[in-house]
UniProtKB/TrEMBL annotation:
The keyword Oxidoreductase does not apply. Keywords: ATP-binding, Kinase, Nucleotide-binding, Serine/threonine-protein kinase, Transferase. It comes from the Bacteria. GO terms for molecular function: ATP binding. SUPFAM superfamilies: ATPase domain of HSP90 chaperone/DNA topoisomerase II/histidine kinase. This is ATP-binding protein. Residues 7-133 form the Histidine kinase/HSP90-like ATPase domain. It comes from Oscillibacter valericigenes. InterPro entries: Anti-sigma-factor_SerPK, HATPase_C_sf, HATPase_dom.
Amino acid sequence: MAEITVAAALDSLDTVLRFVDGQMEQAGCPLKLMTQVDMAVEEIFVNIARYAYHPEAGEASIRCEAGGDPFRIVVGFADRGRPFNPLDRPDPDVTLDAERRQIGGLGILMAKRLMDDIQYEYRDGQNILTLRKNG
């Protein structure tokens, strides 16, 4: 499993996506799967960049593993920001009009729908969120 550590800042998003895409391309990942994983990775990383350390600065580590038979992609995020499990929040009611809907939660809902599995744990002072997608 390859890993990078970047500043938990929006400026690092392109680096994170290039890293994950590089791992998926190297493993021969189908384009449709890459697109789905990229969308989920972007949502998760943007949330880390905006909220994990705010107003302070910090780092995030991203791990990626792709390949196997059957094909599978695993992307893990770790940060030392405030403990926060986005999976604990109830999914937003998308049947409501935008004016009546509570703010927030759409990004994690999208990631849940795109991925086959998402898990969260707080361990050793770190938020650890893992995405899994089978091909």
